[in-house]
Write a structure and sequence with these properties.
- With about 350 residues, the chain is α/β, with parallel strands linked by helices.
- It has a domain of about 180 residues: TIM Barrel (Alpha-Beta Barrel), CATH 3.20.20.
- It is about 40% helix and about 15% strand.
- The strands form three sheets. It has a six-stranded antiparallel sheet with strand order 13-12-1-5-3-14.
């Protein structure tokens, strides 16, 4: 292979002899993914059989297509896996929309050079595109208002940056996860946790401490649902910080009915009446596109969305071989030969 990549797990015996380290996290390292350790085992066995049959260098064209519409994310990771291999790659741009059965990625080259990565490529595209699609739904519901991804706490930390990056690709305006934001050249976005208010014992004390110790470019968005009525707390912190106050965050728990349209309207009205019309209302907690649209209409200015994005069901992706040595082929139920998509671009 052109990049001299070593498949650590190249045969069935390699798989049987493979013993991962015990003192580690369960997530795969970059090296393990590239070595084939995250592949479905039958792909390793197929590669071995083809080699023994003298067919390892058989040139094929494989295409990946989705089961339902969405927004594409994960292409840079796929290209990172495929770069340096003796393959030609065509694909959609990151962030591009797609429809069911659209060809979103096409790979041509010796099957043994890339076939082992089928599992990884499909998994990357299935999850990342699902997260991007959910974020796009939220951004559309917000009607142009900011949406920040707060989903990292809902999934394994090894993939949290992948999810938050995909959310921004889909339309989110920022991400709370540090690595997820940094991978896109952004600074992570967030407000303050209940922990700060609980430990300091008072919302105003927490607001003053936050304002005192955080750099000027960090937004002053203060959580106001910890101890007292949200309207009361919003007015107290607005009076304490004055013009330095950027916004309040409503994160009322479900035990108290969550954040409602009426609550947003009342907080907005009371802030305006007290002369604090510059204070924005940031809402979080169990948000969905439907609720975002309702709260935006009630006067909310920005949204933090977690589980709706992070819990997105993967968009099923399929990789089919469509040509073998230039000859159109397909399994039953599929049309032999490549499926044209004018939006594909040559990427490798």
């Amino acid at each position: 292979m052109s990049d001299n990549r070593k498949f650590t797990l190249g045969t069935d015996k390699d798989v049987r002899d493979y013993v991962p380290g015990k003192d580690r996290l369960c997530s795969a390292t970059h090296e393990e993914i590239l070595s084939g350790a995250t592949a479905d085992v039958y792909l390793v066995r197929t590669r071995e059989i083809l080699a023994r049959e003298g067919k390892a260098d058989t040139v094929v064209t494989a295409e990946i297509f989705p089961s339902r519409p969405g927004i594409l994310a994960g292409m840079p990771e796929c290209l990172h896996i495929l770069k340096g291999l003796p393959v030609e790659v065509w694909g959609l741009d990151e962030g591009a929309p797609f429809e069911p059965k659209d060809t979103i990625l096409r790979i041509t080259g010796p099957y043994s050079a890339f076939g082992i990565y089928e599992t990884a490529l499909l998994g990357i595209l299935a999850s990342s595109s699902a997260w991007a699609t959910r974020a796009a739904e939220c951004k559309q519901a917000a009607n142009g208002l900011p949406v920040i991804c707060f989903g990292a706490r809902h999934i394994h930390p090894a993939v949290a940056p992948v999810m938050e990056r995909a959310a921004v690709v889909g339309g989110a305006d920022g991400a709370a996860c540090i690595l997820g934001a940094k991978l896109l050249g952004l600074e992570p976005a967030g407000t303050m946790p209940h922990a700060l208010v609980l430990i300091l014992g008072d919302t105003v004390k927490a607001a003053i401490a936050y304002n005192t110790h955080m750099p000027p470019d960090v937004p002053r968005t203060i959580l106001v649902d910890t101890f007292k009525d949200e309207c009361e707390e919003a007015l107290r912190v607005a009076e304490a910080l004055g013009t330095e106050m950027g916004g309040i965050r409503l994160d009322t728990p479900g035990e108290r009915g969550g954040v409602t349209e009426d609550l947003v309207r009342e907080v907005r009205a009371r802030l305006d009446l007290a002369g604090f019309s510059h204070v924005k209302i940031f809402v979080s907690g169990g948000l969905s596109p439907e609720k975002i649209a309702q709260l935006a209409a009630a006067g909310a200015d920005a949204f933090g969305v977690g589980s709706y994005i992070s819990a997105a069901p993967p968009i099923n992706m399929t990789m089919d071989i469509k040509e073998v040595e230039g000859r159109p082929v397909a399994k039953r139920g599929r049309i032999p030969g490549i499926i044209q998509n004018p939006n594909l671009k040559k990427l490798i």
